[in-house]
Amino acid sequence: MIKIQYLKFLLRALILVVALFITVNAIRGSYKEDSTKIVKQHEEVKEDHYIVTKELIVNKLTSKSQLVSMEQDFVKSYTDVDKSIWGDRHTELTLKGKYMLGLETKDIEVKHVDNEQGIVYLKLGKPSLISLEIPYDQVEFDKTKGWLRLAANEDEEAKFYKSVVKDVKKRILADDEIVKQAKIHNKEVVEGLLKMIPDVKSIVFE
C-alpha cells in the first residue's frame, strides 16, 4: 500500500516538473521572439534615420525661411542741398544703424546628394538683405549752411530720412566687398547647419 502511494507521488512530481519545463521554455521563446522584434525595429529606425536624402537636406535647410550669416554696424552721413532764391540750405544727416545679410532658404538648390560618400552638392542664391535697422530717434540733423534759411521742418526731415534709408539699402547690396564677404559667410552657415546631420561629411558649392 505504501509502495503504491509512493509511486503515485513520484508520478505527480514528474508531471509537475514536465509542466514547469514546458511553461519556462514557452516564456523564453516568447521573450526571445519579442526581443528579436525590438532589436530589428530599432535597427530599421536607426538605418532610416542615418540615410542622407535630398528630402532630408531640403527639410533641414527650409526649417527657417531665412539664414542670417553676417551682421554689421555702420555710421553714415548724408547732406541734402535745398536751393532757393534766399540761398542754398545744406542739411546734414548723421545716422547709426545695423544691417544683417544672409540667405533666403527658398533660393538654395540641392543639386545632388551622394549618400555613400556623405557629400551634398548645393547652389546658393544671391546674398539677401535680411534686415536694416536705422532708428529714427537716433538720427541727427544739422543745418550746416544757409544762414538766411530756416532749418528743415519735421516733414522735410522725415522725407530726407526715407530717401537716405532707401539709398543705404541700394548701396549695401551694390558693394562688391560686402557681397563677397556675405557669400563666404553664407557658405559657412549652410555648411555648419548641414554637418549637424549624421553622415554628412562634406558640402560642395556649385
What does this structure look like?
It is a single chain. The protein is of the alpha+beta class and 206 residues long. It contains four helices and seven strands. The chain has helices at residues 2-49, 54-61, 154-174, 176-194; strands at residues 66-82, 89-104, 109-114, 119-123, 128-133, 140-145, 202-205. The strands form two sheets. Strands 1, 2, 5 and 6 form a four-stranded antiparallel sheet that branches. Strand 3 and strand 4 (119-123) form a beta hairpin. The chain is elongated. The relative contact order is 0.16.
Write the SSE topology:
Blueprint: H1 2-49, H2 54-61, E1 66-82, E2 89-104, E3 109-114, E4 119-123, E5 128-133, E6 140-145, H3 154-174, H4 176-194, E7 202-205
Parallel strand pairs: 4-7
Antiparallel strand pairs: 1-2, 2-5, 2-6, 3-4
> Taking Cα atoms only, what radius of gyration do you get, to the nearest Å?
37 Å
* Strand content range: 25-35%
The shape, in one word, is: elongated
Largest sheet: 4 strands, antiparallel
The helical percent reads 40-55%
Instruction: Please count the beta strands (DSSP E, at least 2 residues each).
Output: 7
Q: Helix/strand/pairing class, anyone?
A: alpha+beta
Terminal CA distance: 99 Å
Query: Helical segment tally?
Result: 4
**Which regions have little confidence, pLDDT < 50, spanning 5+ residues?**
30-49
Task: Give the SSE order as H and E letters.
Answer: HHEEEEEEHHE
